[in-house]
Amino acid sequence: MNVTTAFGSNREFSIFDISFYWYKVIGAILIFVCAVPLSYIWPPDKNDNLNPKLYSPFVRQLLNVSEAEVELEEVPLKETPSKEGQQENGAA
Predict the structure, then answer these.
(1) DSSP state of 20
(2) Which of 1, 17, 20, 23 is closest to 9 using CA atoms?
(3) What UniProt keywords are attached to this protein's entry (predicted)?
(4) What is the reported pLDDT for 89?
(5) Taking the complete model, does pTM exceed 0.90, yes or no?
């Protein structure tokens, strides 16, 4: 009596045997296994200046930056062109 099982295959592993549904899971596992420990091993560069304006407000709270640097600059509202400006440009 010869019974074959799913695990008794003599085929070698191929990346094409993995379902594409598992790609995200494998990628997340690789991040936690490789990237996170390596980020603690290699310290950040001292010359890197973090611009807090480039981060979202939630992430800004996690950065070690003084409140004076985080202060947002005010951007003036766009002004509507006046009637005189339209006549100078040739618009009626």
Answers:
(1) G
(2) 17
(3) Membrane, Transmembrane, Transmembrane helix
(4) 60
(5) no
Q: Which H or E run contains 68?
A: helix 67-70
pLDDT of residue 72: 59
> Nearest Cα to 68, choosing from 76, 80, 60?
60
Q: What pLDDT, on a 0 to 100 scale, did the predictor assign at position 8?
A: 63
Domain boundaries along the sequence of the chain: 16-70
Nearest to 57 by CA among 48, 67, 47, 49: 67
Q: What count of Cα atoms within 13 Å lies in the side-chain half-sphere of residue 80?
A: 2
CA 36 to chain centre: 15
Q: Two tokens at 25?
A: 């899971």
